[in-house]
Amino acid sequence: QVQLQESGPGLVKPSQTLSLTCTVSGGSITTNYDYWSWIRQAPGKGLEWMGAIAHSGSTYYSPSLKSRTSIFRDTSKNQFTLQLSSVTTEDTAVYFCASDTVVEARPNFGSWGQGTQVTVSS
After folding, report:
1. What is the mean pLDDT of residues 76-80?
2. CA distance 16 to 13
3. Phi and psi of 91, rounded to 5°?
4. How many whole angstroms separate alpha carbon 45 and alpha carbon 73?
5. Cys-Cys with 111: which of 2, 76, 102, 119 at CB 3.0–4.6 Å?
6. H/E segment holding residue 44
7. Residues 6+ positions from 3 with CB-CB distance below 8 Å
8. Would you tell me how many other CB atoms lie within 10 Å of the CB of residue 113?
9. What pLDDT is stored for residue 31 in this prediction?
């Protein structure tokens, strides 16, 4: 059973870059057919898929966030990282990492981390 755990700062100042890491255990991020996603949920809103990195290392981004988002991985640590630049208070959300067999991770499919709260505030 693959397990995922998000880590990173819970508070980020406006205009800074948010950086979160997902550590994977019980499976490899280079496993064929798997995609490793970042998803967020802002207060009072639904889940928003942000982007993913494939087992091959290819990356995919939400068009609405593409200009500010970067996802990369460290295969030696079995981790993948989200960076979101120029954050505003609108980026305050619970951030999840997840794995699935499709690019955009689906709720109730694959494996999800427990989520981590990130607040953007000065």
Report:
1. 97
2. 6
3. -90, 0
4. 28
5. 2
6. none
7. 24, 25, 26, 111
8. 21
9. 81
